[in-house]
Automatic annotation (TrEMBL):
It holds the Pfam family UDPGT. Keywords: Transferase. This is UDP-glycosyltransferases domain-containing protein. The keyword Transferase applies. SUPFAM superfamilies: UDP-Glycosyltransferase/glycogen phosphorylase. The lineage of its organism: Eukaryota, Fungi, Dikarya, Basidiomycota, Agaricomycotina. One of its GO terms (molecular function) is UDP-glycosyltransferase activity. Signal peptide: none annotated.
Amino acid sequence: MTVAAQENPLPAFHLLVIPATFWGHMRPLFHLILNLLKLHPHIRATILLSPATSDRMIKDLNAFTNSEKKLQSRGGTGSISEHLQVVTCGKDSTVVYDAAAAQKDIEDYSTVLPGFIKEIFSGERDLGYGRNNRFASMIPTKIIMDMCQFTVPDILRKAVSEVDQPMPPVLVFCPISFSAMYSMFVTNGLQGMYGRVLRNIDRDVAAGIPVKDAYAKRSFDFPGEVVKFIDIPYKYDYELEPHWALQEIPVESLMAFFPIYHTMFDPIVSGFIMPFTGEFEAETIKVIEKEMGKPLFSVGPQVPADMWNNTLQREIASDDDRKALTFLDDMETVHGPKSVCYLRLISMSASGPSTFLTVDRTSSAGCCRHSKRPVYQSSLLFPSGLKAVPQDFLDEFKDFKDYCHVTFAPQWQVLNHAATGFFITHCGSNSTSETILAEVPIVAMPFFGDQGEIAALLTEVFKIGIDIKQTKTFTNPAHNTLYDGTKIVGTEDAIKEEMRGIWVWMTGKEGDEMRKRVAELKQGIKQSVASGMIGRDLTKIGLGEWA
C-alpha cells in the first residue's frame, strides 16, 4: 500500500486499539494500524490483545518488522515498531484450538480488559500481569475498536469517568462490505436485519420466553422481504445468509453478535472504518452516511506490503505448508498452470482446513462428490481447529491421487502459485482481498454475515466468479427461490449438474475473461490508494480528521 507519508511533523497522539478476539477481524485491523504508523509517524498506538491471540499477532509484527526493517518512520525517528506497543491483557497462555479454550480466552479477556483500559487512561506504567505501558506519559486521545466489542463503550465511559478524563473520539472498525452494513443496520428506517432480530427477541422475552430460547428462535427468522440494495442487485433477505441453516452456531455466539447493532448507534462513536474500496459501492456509502449521520472511512484491503507488491517470498513454516506447496508444484508439472482448484472451508473462530482438487476430468467428479456434502451430511460444519473434519469426508478422496488436504494452508502462497486456477471461497473479507490481489477468480459459496453481499458484488457486478446456487440451504423450506428467479432444487443431481457447468466455465474461455477482470479490479484498488478514496481516508484517519 503506497500512500505518501506526511511531510511536516505533527503533534504526537496516542491511539488505543481494541480488536476483536478472532483472527478474521483482528488481522486486517492490525495491518491497518501498521499502515497508519508508516504513513503517520506522529502516532503512538497501543493494541490490547487477548492471551490466546497475542502470540500470533506478535509473529505478524515480527514479520512486518523484518520486511520493513530498512524503512524508518519519516524523519528518522526510528522503526515503526517503536511507535507501537502490543499489550497482552492477562496471563500468557498456550494457544489450543478447541471451542472450550477459545470461549475461556474470550471470557478471561472480557474480565481483565476494563482494568487495563482504566490503567492506561490513568497513565500508569505498570499495567499488572507483568505488562508495562511504554506510552504512560501520553493519555489516549483517539480510539479504534472492533464492531464486535459491544461492551467496550460502557467500559470506556466508566474508565474515563473514574480517572476524570474526557472521552476521546471513537472509530469503529467494521470488516464488512458497505452493502452488508446497509442491510444489517440501515434498511427499514435504521432497523436493518440486526435491529429487526433484536426487536423480535425483546418482544419474546417480554412475553416470558427465556433469552436463549428467543435468540435461538429469532436469529434464523427471515420474513422473506426484498432488500433493495443500491450497488448490488436486489435480494430476498434469506439469500444473504445462504448456508446459515448448515451452521452449528451456539446460542451464546448469537447473543454476542446481534448486540453489535447497539455499538453502531452508540453516541461515543464518531465514524466507521471499512477495509473495502469505496469507489466500488459509492452510492451505498452516501446513503449510509446520510442515514447514520456519521462518516465512513474506506481504507481498502489491509494486508502486508508484500501482498500488495507480490513480493512475498516462498516460505515453509510448517508441515502443512510443505505438503500444500509440494502438491501444487507436482500438479503444475503434471497438469500445467491453472490446473488446481483451491477450496477453503470456513470456521467462525479459527482458520478452516484447505483442500485442493485438480481440475482435469477425473477431479470434476471428485468435486461433485464433495459439493453435495454440505447439503446432505453438512461436512462443512467441521472445519478443523475447533472441530475436526469427519473421517468419512476424508475417505471420499482416499484413492483420489490429484487431491491434497491440509489443516492450515499458506493461503497467499497458494493463491499466487502458478498451478492455482480458481478459489472456492466463502467470500470472507480477508479471503476476498487476497484473491483479488492475487488475480485469482472465485467460485463463491457464502455462508453468513457479509458474505452474501460480497459474493453478489464479485459475481454479479464485477463478474470475477460464479456463485454456487444449488447448495444454498435456508431455514424455511418455503424459501426455495432466489430473487433472480433461480429455483433451489438442492438434490444431488442438481448440484452435480451445476458443478459440471462451473468446471467448464472456470477452465475455459470464461475463466480467462474472469482473470482479466480480476486484474482490472486490482488496478482499480491501487488507483484508489494512489489518488482516490482509500488514500484520502487513510490520511484523514492519521490526521485525526474524524468528524
